[in-house]
Specification:
It is a single chain. By secondary structure, this protein is an alpha/beta fold. The chain contains eleven helices and 15 strands. The strands form five sheets. It has a seven-stranded parallel β-sheet with strand order 3-2-1-4-5-7-12, with helices on both faces. The protein has a two-stranded parallel sheet with strand order 6-15. Strands 8-11 form a two-stranded parallel sheet. The structure holds nicotinamide-adenine-dinucleotide and the ligand CC(C)=CCC[C@@H](C)[C@H]1CC[C@H]2C3=C(CC[C@]12C)[C@@]1(C)CC[C@H](O)[C@@H](C(=O)O)[C@@H]1CC3. The ligand CC(C)=CCC[C@@H](C)[C@H]1CC[C@H]2C3=C(CC[C@]12C)[C@@]1(C)CC[C@H](O)[C@@H](C(=O)O)[C@@H]1CC3 is lined by residues 82, 118-120, 173-175, 183-184, 187-188, 191, 296-297, 301, 304-305. Ligand LCMIBYSB is lined by residues 82, 118-120, 173-175, 183-184, 187-188, 191, 296-297, 301, 304-305.
């Protein structure tokens, strides 16, 4: 894989959200590539030689300032989980927290900030085929998570200032999967165990992107290493995908069958399921003060399961020299092998 060589001083970096799924894979690869890494996260989920952990809330500027001392490069991949559906939490962490990170980076003399955004910032629940980065932000974002990811990306890209020597770029991954993912495979298996994965929503031909975590990490590191004042990537977003769109339901079936569960077979009309999911979501909002109930089929999940949403990564190929390093087939194999505890009957 082609990477740019950097002087040792620029190899000190911080990963905000480094205890999470993507963050930890990023930390491991950065160590392999000779970076010295500090993790700033609200929790510490592992220990690794060569990594300094600082536990704190990214909304706390003083805590951030201590973590960013002598750091030239920051990766920001922290977010509350999309399933939390908590508007105030998303606003506090993704919007106000990101403003705090930008300010702390500038005050601490950080030179580069790489944000993990999401391709969903342009998704409104209708088909996107080979979407490029020039698609407009969703006018009606499908949930609070997406709404705040849009604001977060705008803040980071607008903060790019070549004169001040503070450079920013955003990576927009889509459907990250791989070992230790707490979201996609566990939710899928949970639904299968409850007998909820018998149905295909829609006709099942919709193509989508699922991106193996190591490819997402590769895109982040390339972005960091190409981020210079004379580079066209300053202040820009880039899609990072596996470049192999797959039918949503084929991907789900491969994971399910790989783990010993039956693949979904029966078809349900998309509009019917979306309407039911919307109704259920409204009900949970109304009943929230009395009962806490988390439906498996949220409007966002149903929209993702029943529409096309795949993106072009030509921009990343041209400006970052990006090319996926792990194929979809290999990524699925590695993912299935990594979840022995979620196998049918385990
Ligand atoms: N998983 C996906 O499919 C996917 C796709 C596109 C974009 N993303 C983005 O990638 C990033 C990483 O996602 P992930 O799947 O690794 O999630 P994750 O939940 O595994 O990791 C997020 C990390 O952020 C930390 N965090 C949350 N609130 C914090 C706070 N207030 N202060 C400090 N740390 C805090 C969490 O403790 C966690 O370790 C997120 O920005 C997410 O929006 C994820
Ligand atoms: C239909 C159903 C309940 C399937 C189970 C799997 C889903 C839990 C899973 C399928 C697509 C996933 C996905 C995300 C979360 C988990 C899924 C809905 C994201 C919404 C997570 C946040 C990211 O920013 C989104 C992105 O743009 O990449 C993800 C899109 C895919």
């Amino acid at each position: 894989m082609m990477m740019v060589c950097l002087p040792q001083s620029s190899k000190r970096c911080a990963v905000i959200g480094g205890s999470g799924f993507l963050g930890r894979h990023l930390v491991e690869k950065l160590l392999d590539r000779g970076y010295s890494v500090s993790v700033f996260d609200i929790r510490q989920s592992y220990e690794l030689p060569g990594v300094t952990f600082l536990q704190g809330d990214l909304c706390d500027k003083q805590a951030l300032l201590s973590a960013l001392k002598d750091i030239s490069l920051v990766f920001h991949c922290a977010s509350p989980p999309p399933a939390s559906d908590d508007r105030l939490l998303f606003e506090r962490v993704n919007i106000q927290g990101t403003q705090t990170i930008i300010q702390a980076c500038i005050d601490a003399g950080v030179q580069k900030l790489v944000l993990t955004s999401s391709a969903s910032v342009v998704f409104e629940g209708t088909d996107i085929k080979n979407g490029k980065e020039d698609l407009p932000y969703a006018k009606k974002p499908i949930d609070y998570y997406t709404q705040t990811k849009i604001e977060q990306e705008k803040l980071v890209l607008e903060a790019c200032d070549k004169q001040k020597g503070f450079l920013t770029v955003a990576i927009r991954p889509h459907g990250i999967f791989g070992p230790r993912d707490p979201q996609l495979v566990p939710t899928l298996v949970d639904a299968a165990r409850q007998g909820k994965m018998k149905f295909i929503i829609g006709d099942g031909t919709n193509l989508v992107d699922f991106t193996y975590v190591e490819n997402v990490v590769h895109g982040h590191i390339l972005a960091a290493e190409h981020l210079r004042a004379d580079s066209p990537i300053c202040g820009k977003p880039y899609h990072i995908t596996n470049d192999e769109p797959i039918r949503f339901w084929d991907f789900m079936s491969e994971i399910l069958v790989g783990l010993g569960y039956a693949a979904p077979r029966l078809h349900l009309p998309y509009r019917l399921v979306y309407g039911l999911a919307l109704l259920l979501w409204l009900l949970t909002c109304i009943l929230r003060p009395f009962v806490s109930f988390k439906p498996t089929f949220t409007p966002m999940r149903v929209a993702l399961a029943g529409t096309y949403h795949y993106y072009s990564c030509e921009g990343a190929k041209e400006h970052l020299g990006y090319k996926p390093v792990v194929s979809l087939k290999k990524g699925i194999e590695r993912t299935v092998e990594s979840y022995p505890h979620l196998r049918h009957g385990a």
